[in-house]
Design brief:
256 residues, alpha/beta, Rossmann fold, six-stranded parallel sheet, 11 helices, 41% helix, globular
Length: 256
Amino acid sequence: MKSIAYALLSAAILTVVAPASAQTQPTAPIRNVVLVHGAFADASGWRGVYDQLTARGYTVSMVQNPLTSLEDDVAATNRVLARQNGPAILVGHSYGGAVITQAGNNPAVAGLVYVAAFAPELGQSVLDQYADVPPPPNFKPEEQKDGFAFLQAETFRAGFAADVSAKDAAFMRDSQVPVALAALKAKMTTTAWKTKPSWYVVATEDGAIAPELLRKTAKRINAQTTEVKGSHVVFLSQPKAVADVIDAAARGAAKR
């Protein structure tokens, strides 16, 4: 009789415990990703990352920054974030890092990924960060009379896209999108990386932002950091490596 009673008691305990353990399920990753390009470029450069992420089941949207002012670019980013059907990982390249720093406190943003990017402090601008570590010698913007800047044609590939083919670099050079220098001088009024989990890709052969500055920035914002061998457009030359970091961010942010 004792053995029967013990068996019944054990079954009752298991019945009570089972629902609680069933509730401990792995957290699903964030499924939405929003990609923000930087200066002198447009969103088409994200195609390789887009292909990688959509193949893994992510819904990927790209912001087309007007590059007319930081305010305009943040508004463009928020416009895309408003279209998401759930929380999103917000990714910024280069100057796009300043955009996501300013826009990243949007409630739709679950985490931030900086790809060879600026992440200014409160009251700091993109150009202020260069005061800490100057840009490499082949990165040479030329301001026009209207306050917009292009990169010099002669040093474009060496400074911006040294690890893509000469043909692709020439196309990027000739299709570059000028940026208003006012956008690069705009001061941050909020810093999303202080409240949102952050990940960072250091491009170890960056010719536009010195790798030393990239590493210092990643450390300063306490980001989970991955170093990838590549130029400033590492997202274009190493799309799988960059997509892997975004994937890790989506999984990591879901656990927060």
